[in-house]
Design a protein that fits this description.
Distance between the termini: 44 Å
Oligomer: single chain
Strand content: under 5%
Helix content: 55-70%
Radius of gyration: 20 Å
């Protein structure tokens, strides 16, 4: 990574300097001051502020000026770490996937069958989709090197590869011996499709609830993959 030159934090905005858009989410409260020169913590401050905005108002609320306010630093300092909004979003998505897999790894290890394991995965994926999949897909910019720095793209690729390895290992553990590439494509498409329907307005047109849909889908997938749902 390139050396990041710190700049002094901008003064906190006054109570009268508010956005003209009353519908915008509230600016996150700045965290405790980070020691000057602590680049790792400064980056964490930026990501924390960005995630609060994302959770509060979606991708449209992820505005760099608001991120700077939330992190307690200048706008220029934010751009030294992330050159544009897309880059920050990719970094946030990568961070989320890493945290998701930290939790899922243990859940997958403790699962006693394929259906249980994949139910955990579907639930975790849906939670992430609420923040990262409804308005803007980080994976869409993975090949746009002019928009997102290559290092951030590589980090996202590594996070996705970790997920795929975990799914591959789960299939192997519960007895799958078929074509892994085809199986992985089917499982990924099924889980992302479910998340897309139940995390968006499409849920209005679905006649069954999330738990019922996931149970049916995963049991059907298990049979299609040659795994007994009752035993897996």
């Amino acid at each position: 990574m390139d050396v990041v030159i710190e700049t002094a934090s901008a003064p906190a905005p006054s109570a009268t300097n508010t956005s003209a858009h009353s519908s915008s989410p509230a600016t996150p409260r700045p965290p405790s001051p980070t020691r000057w020169g602590d680049r790792d913590q400064r980056r964490a401050d930026i990501l924390t502020a960005g995630r609060r905005l994302l959770d509060g108002g979606g991708y449209s609320a992820l505005r760099m000026r608001e991120v700077a306010k939330g992190a307690g630093i200048s706008l220029g300092a934010v751009y030294r770490y992330y050159p544009n909004k897309e880059s920050l979003f990719v970094a946030l998505h990568t961070r989320h996937l890493a945290a998701m897999m930290d939790d899922l790894d243990e859940q997958l290890r403790q699962s006693t069958g394929f259906v249980e394991a994949f139910t955990h995965f579907a639930a975790a994926y849906r939670t992430g989709f609420l923040a990262f999949g409804r308005e803007f897909d980080a994976q869409n910019v993975m090949n746009d090197d002019a928009q997102v720095p290559a290092a951030l793209v590589d980090d996202l690729r590594a996070a996705i590869a970790r997920i795929l390895r975990a799914l591959h290992d789960t299939l192997t553990r519960f007895g799958y011996t078929g074509d892994y590439d085809r199986a992985m494509t089917l499982l990924w498409a099924s889980v992302s499709g479910l998340a897309n329907h139940y995390a968006t307005a499409r849920a209005e047109f679905v006649a069954v609830d999330w738990d019922t849909a996931v149970s049916f889908a995963i049991s059907t997938l298990a049979r299609g993959l040659g795994l007994d749902p009752a035993r897996s």
